[in-house]
Amino acid sequence: MPSPSTSTGAAGVRPSEFRYRCIACGELSATASQDFRCAQCADLLEITYPRWKTARPDCSGLMETWRNRRQSSNPVDLSGVWRFRELLPALDDDQQAITLREGNTPLYELPQCARSAGVDHLLAKHQGMNPTGSFKDAGMTVAATFARRAGFRWVACASTGNTSASMAAYAARGGMRSLVLVPEGKISWSKLSQALDYGAVTCQLRTDFDGCLRLLQELVLRAPVYQLNSINPFRLEGQKTLALELLEQLEWQVPDHVIVPGGNLGNSSAIGKALLEMYELGFISRMPKLSVIQAEGANALVRTLREAGGKRLVSVPAETRATAIRIGNPASWKKAAHVLKATGGACEQVTETEIAQAKAEIGAEGIGCEPASAVTLAGLKKLVKQGFVKANETVVLVLTGNLLKDPDYTIDFHRGDLFKGTGDEGATQSLEKLRHPPIVLDATLDSVIRTLEQADKS
Ligand code: F0G
Q1: Burial status of residue 372 (CB atoms within 10 A of its CB: 0-12, 13-18, 19 or more)
Q2: Pick from 2-16, 89-103, 216-230, 414-428: least confident
Q3: Best residue for ligand 1 mutational test, from 188, 329, 362, 400 (most atoms within 8 Å of Cβ)
Q4: Which DSSP string corresponds to 344-391?
Q5: Average pLDDT score, the chain
């Protein structure tokens, strides 16, 4: 395996356009080591654009450029990520971008869910409508592009499924090999099948996600592979564009609340970074409150904020059927704690029953999402009850993954099997109205008509 440069800043990347900044000690650097940790204090890095201080981007000019690019047929303009490239690390040549036309995701009204949550107006930004079915594509197009520019043949990630599906797709499109580390038996077959089809070397490790990520961090220091987890700050730059696209869809009218699921906490950090940058640059004159919702069984950030005042990470042994966020030791906890504080957002946890109910309610709107995304609606209900979200405020839920990402969960729910043997079996009864199990019938007209008549009465 030929060894590329050990510095991710050395080959291809123009350091004059951006710097790496340590989130703890503030150290600025033009290059980063393979594990994307600060050379001084080993904390995480973020990307910063010193040029913005002296040459502020022209907001209204950019808004117009971004709008006009929608009419273009240039692949970087068709991408809902690269369309906003003035706020991303610069490419020497637009054609370098590895793109699958990510982004450009719909913003849906959720009127029934709004009623159920107790708000007048509820929107969902559906990142599950990305090319591989999750929000990861927005970050992956940027990070995979920079991996290739830096000369890497191999990219790698630890994943609960979606990152690996996305990474494998972008690596394949970009002519790179990919190595996937996933916890054995703890990710959905649907996500695993994507990684296989896109040609990844897929390792099912006998550990959890946190164990996979620990191993990856050691691996990247020993082997010439480029890591594409959200520790990689290029990922977060791409994921920032969710907020830009959302504000553009809202004609730059700022919503009161944006609510996201929290797992490894890269996405909340990215959205928060975008909101702070948009505010500083003058794209918006106030900030939405960014809130993070976790599953009760994987509530490291909730506990970190409540028990340690956000000063040190409280890790947890993670367990939830929302396997995408089955993470107990989130890498980006400090970044997430910072953006929650800076935007005035909340952090809540929801039970398995609440997640199942919310997921079924989002499905009943004809939209659907994977279980991890549904924590947002379940969390909103709590935030409304607590008075943190007012009925007349505008709320945007970020739906992170497509319904088809985890069909086993959905089928188990509708068949009444989701809570079997879990101690939550009472929930099956209470959620009866939301269940639509398949019905096995003799192939006769009579039996189908009888079923139709019965269903019409219910
Ligand atoms: N929703 C979905 C559908 C996810 O796949 C993930 C994370 C999250 C929410 C949480 O986002 O980690 O940025 O806080 N999935 C990662 C993966 C961990 O490997 O696919 P986060």
Answers
A1: buried
A2: 2-16
A3: 400
A4: T--EEEE-HHHHHHHHHHHHTTT----HHHHHHHHHHHHHHHTTSS-T
A5: 95
- The Å distance, Cα 325 to ligand 1 centre, comes to 6
**Contact assessment for residue 295 and residue 320, using Cβ atoms and an 8 Å cutoff:** yes
> What sign does the dihedral 321-406-376-282 (CA atoms) show?
positive
Tens digits of per-residue pLDDT, 91-101?
989 999 999 99
Substitution candidate for ligand 1 out of 267, 301, 340 with most atoms within 8 A of CB? 267
Q: Distance between CA 234 and CA 423 in Å, rounded?
A: 42
Pocket of ligand 1 (CB under 6 A): 134, 159-163, 230, 261-268, 324-325, 370, 372-373, 400-401
Strands ordered across the beta sheet of 347-350: 107-109, 121-126, 394-399, 257-261, 289-295, 347-350
| pLDDT tens figures, 182-236 | 999 999 999 999 999 999 999 999 999 999 999 999 999 999 999 999 999 999 9
- Tell me how far the alpha carbon of residue 262 lies from the centroid of ligand 1, in angstroms: 7
Nearest residue to 129 (alpha-carbon basis) of 150, 103, 147, 152: 103
Q: Of 376, 434, 363, 370, which Cα lies nearest the Cα of 403?
A: 370
203, 208, 214, 217 alpha-carbon torsion, rounded to 10°: 40
CA dihedral 368, 370, 376, 381 (to 10 degrees): 60
As a whole number of Å, the CA-based R_g of the chain is 22
Number of helices (H) and strands (E), helices first, in the chain?
A: 18, 13
* Amino acid symbol at 108: Y
Residue with tokens 């649907």: 190
3-state SS assignment for residue 292: strand
Segment 280-337, tens digit of pLDDT? 999 999 999 999 999 999 999 999 999 999 999 999 999 999 999 999 999 999 999 9
pLDDT one-digit tens code per residue, 315-331: 999 999 999 999 999 99
44's tokens: 């995480």
Of all protein residues, the one whose alpha carbon is nearest to atom 15 of ligand 1 is 324
The DSSP annotation for 43-73 comes to -BEEEE-THHHHS---HHHHHHHHHHGGG--
The number of the ligand 1 atom at minimal distance from the alpha carbon of 230 is: 13
What number is the average pLDDT over the span 361-369?
98
What local confidence, expressed as pLDDT, does residue 16 receive?
52
Counting every residue written for the chain, the total comes to 458
C-alpha–C-alpha distance, residues 33 and 10, integer Å: 10
